[in-house]
Amino acid sequence: MKDLLDQLAATQRAMGKGSVPAGEAYTIELRRRYEAQIDDVWDAVTSPERLHRWLSSVTGDLRVGGKFALDSGEHGEILRCEPPRLLKVSWLFGPDADAWPGTSEVEVRLVPVATGTTHVELIHAAVVEEPLFPTYGPGAGGVGWDLYLLALARLLAGRETADHEVVQQSPEGREFIRRSAAAWGDAHLAAGGEPEHVAAAVEATSTFYAPDPS
Q1: Percent helix, strand and coil across the chain, each rounded to 5?
Q2: Looking at residue 139, which CATH number applies to its domain?
Q3: pLDDT computed for residue 95 by the predictor
Q4: Over the chain (214 residues), what is each successive 10-residue block's mean pLDDT?
Q5: Measuring CA to CA, how many Å separate 99 from each of 23, 92, 102, 111?
Q6: E-strand spans in 164-213?
Q7: Strand pairing of 23-34 and 12-20?
C-alpha cells in the first residue's frame, strides 16, 4: 500500500484553463518525474508494443495526421509528434464523440532533468461544455490518468504492470482511487471550485471508479 501512496504523492496535479478547436477548455494537468532516460519514456508512450502494458492496445495510422484507436474506446488524430519531447493528440471517447470533433486533446511533454531522470507533463484539455464535468469535476479524467501513470511507473521500473480492472477491484487500488479523487478535489478547490460542488464531485468520482463491492 505504501508504494501506491508514494506513487500518488509523486504526481503534482492542477486544474487550469486552455483552449481546443471547439472553444474554451478546462485542463487537468499532471506532472511528475520518472527515473528513466527520456528515450525510454518516449518509447513507452509511443510504441504500441509498450503502450498496451500501461495504457491500452492501440491500432491505426500512427503518424502525424493519422487516426488511432485504443481498445478501451478512446480514439482520435495524432496532431503533433516531435521525438522525444512532445506528443499531442485529439482524444475522443464513445461512438457519438465523432459528432463533436475538437472538444478534447491530450498533450504529453518530456524534459530530461538529470542523468537518467525525465520530467513528464500530461495536459488533458476538454471543452468547458463537456457533460461529465458538472457531476465529476476534474477527477472524471484525472483519476484515470493517475491509474495510467501508476502503471507507467511500474513499466519504466521494469516491474509487471497489473490489469487496470484488477487494480480497481483490489482494496489497495480502491484506496488509491479514493485518495486520487480527493487530490483532484484539492486541485479543483485551488482553481476556484465551489466547496459543495467539489465535495459532491469527489464522492461521485470515487463511486464511479470504485463502487461499493457489496
Answers
A1: 40, 30, 25
A2: 3.30.530.20
A3: 67
A4: 84 97 96 97 97 96 96 95 98 79 95 94 94 94 95 92 80 93 98 97 95 76
A5: 15, 10, 10, 35
A6: none
A7: antiparallel
Grid cell of 180 as nine digits: 486520487
Quick one: pLDDT at residue 177?
A: 95
- Which of 27, 34, 32 is CA-nearest to residue 187? 27
The residues, ordered by sequence, that sit 6+ positions from 51 with a Cβ below 8 Å of its Cβ are 44, 45, 57, 58
Does a structural domain hold residue 214? Answer: no
What pLDDT does 108 receive? Answer: 98
Residue whose C-alpha cell is 458538472: 134
Give dist(CA 168, CA 175) in Å, integer.
9
CB 144 within 8 A of CB 70: no
Q: Is 65 left (phi over 0), alpha (psi -120 to 50) or beta?
A: left
Whether pTM > 0.90 for this model: the answer is yes
Say if 51 falls within a structural domain: yes
Residue 58 included in any domain: yes
DSSP bridge pairs for 59? 69
- Per the structure, how many domains does the chain have? 1
Range of the domain at 199: 2-209
> Rounded to the nearest 10 degrees, how much is the dihedral formed by the CA atoms of 168, 169, 172, 178?
50
> What pLDDT sits at residue 150?
93
